[in-house]
UniProtKB/TrEMBL annotation, chains A, B, C, D, E, F:
The keyword Hydrolase is annotated on this UniProt entry: yes
InterPro entries: HD/PDEase_dom, HD_domain, NA-bd_OB-fold, NA-bd_OB_tRNA, YhaM_exoribonuc/phosphodiest
This protein's name: Metal-dependent phosphohydrolase
PANTHER family in the record: 3'-5' EXORIBONUCLEASE YHAM (PTHR37294:SF1)
GO biological process: rRNA 3'-end processing
SMART domains named in the record: HDc
CDD domains associated with the record: HDc, YhaM_OBF_like
Superkingdom, natural source: Bacteria
GO molecular function annotation: exonuclease activity; nucleic acid binding
Gene3D superfamilies on file: Hypothetical protein af1432 (1.10.3210.10), Nucleic acid-binding proteins (2.40.50.140)
Natural source organism: Loigolactobacillus bifermentans DSM 20003
Keyword Hydrolase in annotation: yes
Length: 320, 320, 320, 320, 320, 320
């Protein structure tokens, strides 16, 4: 198996294919241009600077290109970076698919699809079941490849479906523990809650917000989907069933200030909000702790109120 | 012209027809029941207590009934109240329509309709024009009779349309002053922004929030309307036009914490939010100052951060 | 089986034994004294007024006494209350144990003890295991009978242990889902996190805050316990193990403003905070929804930012 | 007509006179000094770096000087900047007046003066009329040349009077719509509300806060003016008239946290606050949108809570 | 010495002269009127109800009257109240001066005047010294009799001067400890900081806010005084001296949200704010703890964020 | 006496020994490494850059080393910095003790010890006296050398004890002014309140937070000390005395959001919080104003909500 970016140690020479995730052209103080790269493969991302960049360099080394890179991994202000020796665009016969270099959900797409289909069987209220299936079909292609966010948590290919499936696992445990929770409503809410991100975001590569993402937002975008599903399926939008389903989805950010137009007023809406928050927090922390040396603190994490987290030196042995 | 509730002075005997706005049955400390009434006519509302209420009294004197009332207006803890002498349900030949006793917008419905129709001519972008007309037609009956709120501002019959028309006047002045504002977008936004209240609220008499009003809210309810209009009119929901229109409506509360799922990111959205806030504030203040004696402060107003407002003793002569 | 307070309908006469939960003596507007009672049994609590109370009534009908009550259940301002016909203190041969009338955890104490003992086996780090067992032994008597709060959630006999066990169930599901969480640390944190409430609160009957509860609080009170355990067991307080365990407990309220002297800086501390918040919220909501008629909203709940919650009319059939 | 800074395209050579708005001397990483310029003319501002600056360069190229500039407009990190070819101080016969290069209010000073004089006629309460005229005379020279702010909105020569006149237009429309507003008080408040900025700020060129501006602030500085006017004009400061006028001015920031020592407690104070906020917001947005390409978002705007604003691709045709 | 209100025990009959501090006429549930009194003497205040009040009773027993009261002190819902046996208006030969019944500063007026005069000697900067003396002379009569607040802290006759002198003592200690503080500026700030309350409040009996107090506030009212002093004494308002003095006074609430138009930007302004806050807090707590039984908590105190304070059972012996 | 860093003027050559407080290795835009130094002696700190740093330079010029420096003091972007001519590590016979270059409390250690011992005599409650003495003995070595903070206030050797003694002086003045304050409790609280910083911080040189400092914090760390003292001295932790002492220490940050697990509920806790805040604020301001030119504003101070402070041009003559 080929070595990846994070398989190299600091001060070790490296020789591998990587994806250009970002390529900012800047002017150095000597007046010459350089390119500030972020290279990426499935092990993570590292930056590196390409000095004295000519017109041709700028023209060819662009975001989304796969390149062959030789250089050295160094430590700079506590963070790894690449000192670039040589660079060339991947040629015929060399790896050229950007998708091969994108981090992915740790579970494959088929498994995710199976789990979601399984959960849909448990949505016993017919109207909710039909709406969920109709919308899943509409967004089939994107739902299983999109990330769940631009940065922060689950910002990788398939992250959206992976986040959804993790939440279904938590939902199952919670519904088992508290039998008066309406399991069908929670499951339907989990599957739909972030599906609007397939419109809010531009896709898994070089993820950006779309115009509708900025001006309408994924919460209302999936509510629009439910409205359309009801029209298509001839379901009464004014029925209690549909009001409940829409509420659960609309309220899932938990508070107005986080962008929900209504705050949870159903037990199931409160539960969905907690599950979402819990999975997002854990996934964000894991991402940061994964690159933190035991005995150190992580960077301060913007999405966690600027807190930093400690990686213990001697964690308890996890169950073998 | 018949005298109304606020035409009587304190300590004056009164004899008139009023509407029962509220009728709470309570137990006095002597163990007997009494009814705590709120009586209402177009001049305002005053409370009064009916002691030693029997079963029959409780059965007949209910919210929404018109009654003939004789009694005396008194001052109790700084507020007017009615000492009830006699009460009977309005009989045949006496006024019996609750609507006759509801406060109304100071402008008649025909004028309001004319003004709104006039404004629609100015919405020169065809897609917005069609959506506005389609939705206005859908909600024609309720839009011109509903209040704009349960309490606070414009809480009277026709208040919703009156609020809309006042805002159109302000919108006109602002668009005249700043020509780079897109007038059509502001006008469309003004007309639609609170139209969801026809679903959020139960109606002009004894106004309550509906289930959809509580769990979805008027902002998303009218967004649903726009989605349905586009389906019916075959307008592309993903077009920039529709994203802009929905944004303007969704953002009109100005901040997440006031229930907008997105915050203004268009000049016209910012303007709409200001106009709404301005008209609502002025209308709320006028309502409170109208019953404040010159030289006194009003009650503390919940919707204005608990501030009280002063009614000057010698206001400048308004232009004759 | 005897009928309990909530087995009676409104306007039905009742005849049963209840516990006096509160007995406030007040002066009626006719100058005579009355007692404002709150009666309680395992089905819930209802208030009632005892008019024209004499010296002897006041002397005997005190908080904590079991009484025989005949009266009628009525509706007053939307809430049930008791119209008292007759009252006497429970006599020899009648039920007299206050404990019989206290609401209880829905799981018996033996089961709770078993579950907690089982969880302790999973705390594989010896130092944590010893500290948890030492403290559980110290607080053995109170830990399984105390409520988890004065009001709000789990405010019933055995509520503290029941809350702990529910959280252990959630912890298990979460640790199963995310294998890099240190299960031993989470379990130890769950068992200890609220154990200081055995000092903070006065006990299961007529629960009050103690002086130490008010001035020190349960978070620091159990931290004190860990310090004492380490002294007794000769464990190094400065070791990483103990710093981690104390952190997890100290940070469990999640934010400074909720009374944690430090905010979570360990993955496990973040997880513990979420589990605590989730179980407390669900339990609080269940308590309120249990007495809400389907199709209505509950009262506004102080501990949920004043939100009210809706009880659906036609919930999905829970799995049989 | 000569081409100005924003008349040139990116990658086009330029040759024009500009004003040096800022000239920071810095040390490059090669140890040599360079000057970081901001050049300005009436079309806007662009930065540019002057490498290897000698003592004489530093001595002559200072803030406030007019220079002849040849160079090239380039794009750097998404923003335009000037690559400097040659620079010399404007010589005899060349344009040398800094004022010629300052952005100005879009309306000339005579028109602004006329409009304000016209408004004063409408202030029918004699005491307010006299105070306003007395203060306007005191600050005549500066009031019509100062900006309304250091940065943010109306930060150009004449901006203060322009902001005042725009607000008078809005005030007129609002007073026309709601006849119970005291027009004289609103007009007086509009004219005075920001007049203290003539003391708070240093002037239209290289605007800074003065010591009194920092330590006392423009709100109290104009209140001081009203006190002095009353002394000079022998008007009773304790009269209701003067208390109302001072209140309207003191409360115009709307909330304590924005620096008003009192919050609006008069209808007219509430109205003045809204008008000020509305005009400032629109003017700020226009400034940012003017340099935003249609289809793009502006920079995030500090004075609008960090929001960015979208410039639509196909705005509706403004009325011709 | 005559016994006062707080010299009587609960359930003890009392017979004494008191001042009527408040006399609210209300209607009992039997339809008859009663007067809800608050009686006051220098030991504190207690409420009491006068049942079946006739027209004559209501006419004569008004706020500000001295009455002879016989009755019984009782405990009602944890608070003392008076059961009234008999009441009559004080007759000729009986005490009739309301001032005799008002709580007073614990230090007499002459001492307060001496201390303030002494402090003025230490204000070595001539301009500050003259302004302070000029203003003190203007407000001589009220400054030594007014309270420092309507409720909360120092709400007693002479409270304003007493608060000022306590602060001078603290100021002396702080200036001794940190010699780089400008003592003259702190002393001048202490003496002036609340002097505007002589205009903001109506006086020591039945204290209310005046119109100017509500609409302008004591901070700007004393700033007005400094402006007038400078005019009268021909001192340059634009001098650094006067800017500093005004700043210290304007900023003494410490934050915008507490009503200061500017926040402290001078060491001396920061110090003045702390001294004010410290003395106000201690005085407020002493007032509440004085009537709290050792071993109990006080009421929750509005001005201290709703906290309650504990009165220890066994306080350390204060130095004899 | 040798000249120190702040004895030199800008543009003056310097030649002196200094301590390396920080030495960050960075890569210049020409690809070569340089060291960004912060040099320090008792007069303050100044930064300087060492260009073209070789491996040996990086190896020897490390934090904590004393070096001989020749160079020139320059002004760069308004702040002084050193242009380095030559550098060498201090040799035998040259000053080599880092401690000699650390800023120190302005009072010597013996005086601080005497003052604290004197204060302990005044703690007349035996239990508090014994606990304070026991803990002072435990932390004797560190208490008198540690700083009171990493940055902000009292961040110098001996700062912790100096802060404590300044607070004792203020405490004395306050207890003299308000005799109902329990002096013994305030003094005990002052001495203990920050003693946990001896565990929270790493020491006076290159001060960092320890793991226990981050995860437990100094407030709980000294509470742990009180628990241990009680065990060692056989004092009852549940006694009122100990609950009060712990409360005063735990509550000294004043609010939950500043990290206190309980908020002040004792007069003495409120007083301690104020004294701490007052001394910290003054000390922080003095530090910033000391390097501010008269007539200028200081930098914006993070610990004072980002405010800047003005250094007056003509301060009043302090008493000679």
């Amino acid at each position: 198996m080929t070595k990846q970016l994070y398989d190299y140690q600091n001060d070790e020479n490296l020789d591998l294919f990587v994806l250009i995730k970002a390529a900012d052209v800047r002017v150095a103080k000597n007046g010459k241009k350089f390119i500030a790269f972020v290279f990426q493969d499935r092990s993570g991302e590292i930056s590196g600077k390409f000095w004295d960049a000519g017109q041709q360099d700028i023209a060819q080394y662009q975001t989304g290109k796969v390149v062959h890179l030789t250089g050295k991994r160094e430590l700079y202000q506590g963070k790894p970076q690449i000192k670039i020796f040589k660079l060339h665009i991947a040629k015929a016969g060399e790896p050229q698919q950007p998708e091969q270099f994108l981090p992915k959900a740790p579970v494959d797409q088929t498994t995710l699809q199976d789990e979601i289909n399984q959960a849909i069987f448990t949505i016993t209220k017919p109207s909710w079941n039909r709406v969920v299936r109709w919308l899943l079909k509409q967004h089939q292609d994107t739902f299983f490849t999109y990330p769940a966010a631009k940065t922060n948590h689950h910002a990788f290919e398939g992250g959206l479906a992976y986040h959804t499936v993790s939440m279904l696992h938590l939902a199952k445990a919670i519904c088992d523990e508290y039998p008066d929770i309406d399991r069908a409503l929670v499951y339907a809410g989990v599957i739909l809650h972030d599906m609007g991100k397939t419109i809010e975001l531009s896709g898994p590569v070089a993820t950006q917000y779309t115009l509708a993402g900025n001006l309408i937002g994924h919460i209302v975008l999936i509510d629009e989907g439910i409205v359309q599903a009801c029209t298509a399926l001839d379901i009464d939008l004014a029925s209690e069933d549909m009001v409940l389903l829409r509420h659960v989805v609309l309220a899932h950010h938990g508070k107005h200030e986080y962008g929900s137009p209504v705050e949870p007023q159903l037990l199931e809406a409160e539960v969905l909000h907690h599950i979402d928050d819990l999975d997002a927090s854990i996934q964000m922390l894991r991402g940061h702790l994964q690159h933190t040396t035991p005995g150190d603190f992580s960077d301060r994490i913007f999405g966690m109120d600027g807190r930093h987290f400690y990686a213990p030196q001697q964690p308890d042995q996890p169950e073998a």
